[in-house]
Design brief:
alpha+beta, 22% strand
Length: 319
C-alpha cells in the first residue's frame, strides 16, 4: 500500500498539480489566520471579525457541499471510499486551528512564522491522500476455497501442488510442481496447436492438439525446490495490495496453489506486476518465472516454429 501511495510522487505533473491544489486550499487557511489576527491584535477588530465570519461561512459551506457530493460509499470498500469525505472534513479543524493561532501570533517569534509552511504541508498531505483514494485499486484477484475430499485422496501424500500456465494461439503449456518434505518434483504438459485459428476470431475454439507431450516427473534441484517452497508460503500468506497504476496492455500471470496440509486452494491472477507498487505480487511472479524449465526440455518447437506448424495445419482456417 505504501508503494501505491508513493506512486503519486513519481509523476512530476501530478506532483505539480497536487502542489497547486494545496496552495488553493492554503489560501483560506492563511486568510482565516490574517482575519483572526486583525480581530485580536490590531485596531481593525470589527472588520477582522466580519471578514473572518464571512470566510468561515464560505469554508463550512464549501466543505459541507464537498462532503455531500462525495457520498458514493461502497460497502465493499468502505475504508477506501470514505477517505475523500475524511479529507474534506479535515479542512475544518485545520482552518479553525490556523485561525486560533492568529490570535496568539507574535511577529518577533521566528517559530510562529512556521504556521504558513506547516499549514501548506498539511494541505498538501490532504490532497495527496485524496488523490490516492481516487486512483488506488485493489491489485489483481485471488480466491480461496477448501480442497475436496476427492482431491485430497488424489494428492498421493504430497504436501503441496503449484500449477502454472503459459501459452499463445499456437501452443498451451502447463507446469505442475509437487512437494513432499524436502523433495520437490515438476511435470510439464505441452499441447501444440490446441485451437482452431481464425484471424477474424479473437476467441479461438479448442480442438484436438497436433501434438501432446507430457514429461515424466522430474526432481527439482535444491535451489528451485527452495523457490517452490517460498512461493507456496508467499501465496498462502498473500493479502491484497493496492496500486495506482493501470496498464491496459501487457501480460498476466496466473498461479494456483493446493496446500494439502491445510486443505486449502488459492488461485491468483495479476497483470503487469510492478515492484514499486505491488512488491509481494512482483516477487511471486519472479519466483514462478524462475521455476519454468527451458523450452527445449519439453518440446522441439521454438515459438516461431510452433506458429509455422499451426498455420500449415488443418487447425488454421486462414484469413
Amino acid at each position: 500500500m505504501l508503494g501505491c501511495f508513493l506512486y503519486e510522487f513519481q509523476d512530476a505533473k501530478l506532483v505539480c498539480f497536487d502542489l497547486a491544489l494545496a496552495l488553493v486550499i492554503s489560501i483560506p487557511l492563511w486568510l482565516g489566520f490574517l482575519f483572526s489576527f486583525m480581530n485580536s491584535q490590531t485596531r481593525f477588530k470589527k472588520l477582522g471579525a466580519v471578514l473572518w465570519s464571512i470566510l468561515t461561512a464560505f469554508v463550512l459551506g464549501t466543505v459541507a457541499w464537498a462532503v455531500f457530493r462525495a457520498q458514493y460509499i461502497d460497502v465493499f470498500d468502505l475504508w477506501k471510499n470514505i477517505t475523500p469525505v475524511i479529507c474534506f472534513a479535515a479542512i475544518v479543524p485545520v482552518f479553525l486551528a490556523t485561525s486560533a493561532f492568529g490570535r496568539v501570533f507574535k511577529r518577533k517569534k521566528k517559530l510562529h512564522w512556521l504556521v504558513f509552511p506547516v499549514s501548506f504541508v498539511v494541505s498538501f498531505a490532504l490532497v495527496v491522500v485524496f488523490g490516492w483514494a481516487l486512483l488506488a485499486e485493489e491489485y489483481g484477484s485471488y480466491s480461496e476455497s477448501v480442497i475436496s475430499k476427492e482431491e485430497m485422496e488424489q494428492s498421493e501424500g504430497f504436501d503441496f501442488e503449484i500449477r502454472l500456465g503459459r501459452g499463445s494461439y499456437y501452443d498451451d503449456i502447463s507446469l505442475k510442481i509437487r512437494g513432499k518434505v524436502d523433495s520437490v518434483y515438476y511435470q510439464v504438459k505441452y499441447d501444440l496447436c490446441p485451437y482452431v485459428l481464425d484471424n477474424k476470431d479473437w476467441n479461438p475454439e479448442y480442438t484436438e492438439p497436433l501434438e501432446k507431450i507430457v514429461t515424466p516427473w522430474i526432481l527439482l534441484n535444491q535451489e528451485k525446490s527452495s523457490i517452490a517452497k517460498r512461493l507456496r508460503e508467499a501465496m498462502m500468506a498473500y493479502e491484497s495490495e493496492w496500486t495506482a497504476v493501470s496498464v491496459l496492455d501487457g501480460y498476466c500471470t496466473g498461479i494456483v496453489v493446493h496446500d494439502f496440509q491445510k486443505q486449502t486452494r488459492r488461485s491468483m491472477s495479476f497483470c503487469n506486476a510492478d515492484i514499486s507498487n505491488v512488491p509481494k505480487a512482483y516477487a511471486m511472479e519472479k519466483m514462478s518465472d524462475s521455476l519454468w524449465p527451458p523450452r527445449e526440455t519439453y518440446t522441439k518447437y521454438s515459438i516461431e516454429q510452433a506458429e509455422k506448424a499451426c498455420r500449415e495445419s488443418q487447425n488454421y482456417t486462414g484469413e
